[in-house]
Amino acid sequence: MVMSVQIATLEAAELRYNRAFEEHWDDIFRFLLAWTNDWAAAEDLAQDAFLKLWGHRNGLDWDRPVLPWLIIVARRLATDRFRSLRRRILPLHSGQSLDETSRVRWLDVRAALSKLSALERAALLLTAAEGWSYADVAEALGTTSGALRAAVSRAREKLEDA
Amino acid sequence: MSRTPDEIIDGWKAVASSAARPAEPPRPTRTRTAMPAGLLAAGATAVVLLVVLSARGAGPGPQGSPLAVGAGSSSSPAATVSAPTEVAPDGSAPPTAVATRSAEPDQTPSPADFAAAKAAVEAYTADLVQGDYAKAWAMLAPESQAHWQSLAAFTNERATFFKTVTAGYTVSADSPTTSGQPIPSFEYAAYGAVIDLHHAVLIGVSYPDSPSAHTGRVDAYIVSPVAGKLELFDAP
Predict the structure, then answer these.
(1) ipTM (interface pTM)
(2) B200 and B193 in contact (C-beta within 8 Å)?
(3) Domain A2-161 CATH superfamily
(4) Is A87 within 8 Å of chain B by CB?
């Protein structure tokens, strides 16, 4: 009886993990894309974030929203020093999973956005393109609303000047 | 072609929404019993690093890095959820000192390798700060020089960057394994033919005052013995 309950619990955790993947993969990928400006890195980091979730699936309180948990994991992974070093030493091939038309478009957009810092880029894209609230973005990026608004403003100025 | 910020944002939105989700939710593929030799070596590398750093009284890794996000930030989403802790991707505990140290003690950089590599990067960076670009250039491996294409391009980029470095820098002898990343997941393919992974060390240089420091700007070098001397592998 006890064992069957444990098995049911494990299965439930796996089902919830699968559901989290269905519901939040796109959010996490785009969050990471905005931060890194690197398609392959965003895919790689999103994969790692979900692997972290998999590793914690049996200990998580699944009654709470999982997206905030995933975002903070993704942010930690994206700012992890050695992952940054790895990307700098040996950049991953960018956008291999894109078709040719999208790849050309991505390289164009990426070049324009490369003028921004990671904070400026994420602040601008998550608010303007993704439609997140300033409060949510500030929380996701670990900054204040004031700093976020300043970053968005700077980002727009830089893009206009480019 | 000049575009407005909103046009760039719309372009990003369009291409980002075209991303293909993986067919299946990610699952770990490794098991602890099937641990490859490289992973064992990575664990042993971490042990060496811990020994070195504990002797120096400093701890490596994201928590101690100026580039890391504060885990305990009250403004972060972690305040409302249970804070994630670092585990290996397969959910296993990190290798223990005893187990991995006895596994392959000869397969990892020694404390002397770390010290020599750190000294090499310190000398290289000092040359850059002093404007002796030719001397620094000579320390780079031919493969890295090829990445830079020419001494002139190297000098131009480095001189521009070091103008922004006004309050010093920090050279740290760290290992890629300290963030839980086993060596096999690091794709050394570009340099694999010449890098001696048994003695190669990853060295980071951070610039606290750099305008881009908060974005994670660091210089990183793989320092490896090649044909009897240490060479720095960098990428522009």
Answers:
(1) 0.88
(2) no
(3) PhyR, sigma-like (SL) domain (1.20.140.160)
(4) no
For the whole model, what pTM was predicted? Answer: 0.52
Instruction: Give the mutation candidate from B3, B4, B8 for the A interface (greatest A CB count, under 10 A).
Output: B8
Under the banding of pLDDT at 50, 70 and 90, the label for residue B1 is low
The per-residue pLDDT for range B161-208, each reduced to its tens digit, is 888 777 788 887 654 444 333 333 344 545 566 777 677 777 777 776
In what side-by-side order are the strands of the sheet with B170-174?
Answer: B170-174, B201-206, B218-226, B229-233
- Cβ-based burial of B38 (10 A; exposed 0-12, middle 13-18, buried ≥19): middle
What would the pLDDT profile of B107-123 be if each residue is shown by its tens digit? 467 788 888 988 999 99
Q: What's the pLDDT at A24?
A: 95
**Angstroms from A37 CA to nearest CA on chain B:** 10
- Does A65 sit within 8 Å of B81, measured CB to CB? yes
Nearest chain B alpha carbon to A46: B26
Residue of B7, B76, B92 best to disrupt the A interface, most CBs of A under 10 A: B76
